[in-house]
Amino acid sequence: TLDLVSPTRPVADPAGPPEILDAVAAENERVASAIRTDFILSAEIMAIALATVTGDSLWLKAGVLAIVGLG
């Protein structure tokens, strides 16, 4: 209707207030940091698991990594 846009009613900023944008950006940064940390820790766990496998078989190493990955 015509009363949705009127000179007396301000049009809302589609991006939202700056405080909300800052909170969203901070949350996105925190999530990205947590994902990076999780990836690094997972890689370390896989490296430790591979170091403990004494067999030379590729299938043995793949099996160990699969079990560690599922656990």
Gap between N and C termini: 58 Å
Class per helix and strand makeup:
mainly alpha
Query: How do the helices and strands follow one another from N- to C-terminus?
Result: HH
Radius of gyration: 25 Å
Give the overall silhouette: rod-shaped
Largest sheet, in brief, is: none
Percent range for helical residues? 55-70%
Tally of separate helices: 2
The residue-averaged pLDDT reads 80
- Strand tally: 0
Low-confidence stretches are: none
Sheet-strand content, in percent, reads under 5%
Write up what this structure looks like.
This protein has about 70 residues and is mainly α. Helix content is about 70%, strand content about 0%. The chain has 2 helices and no strands. The longest helix is centred in the middle third of the chain and has 35 residues. About 0% of the residues are buried. The model has no long low-confidence stretch (mean pLDDT about 80).
Summarize the structure.
The chain has 71 residues and is mainly alpha-helical. It contains two helices and no strands.
Task: List the keywords.
68% helix; 0% strand; mainly alpha; single chain
Helix-strand blueprint:
Blueprint: H1 18-52, H2 58-70
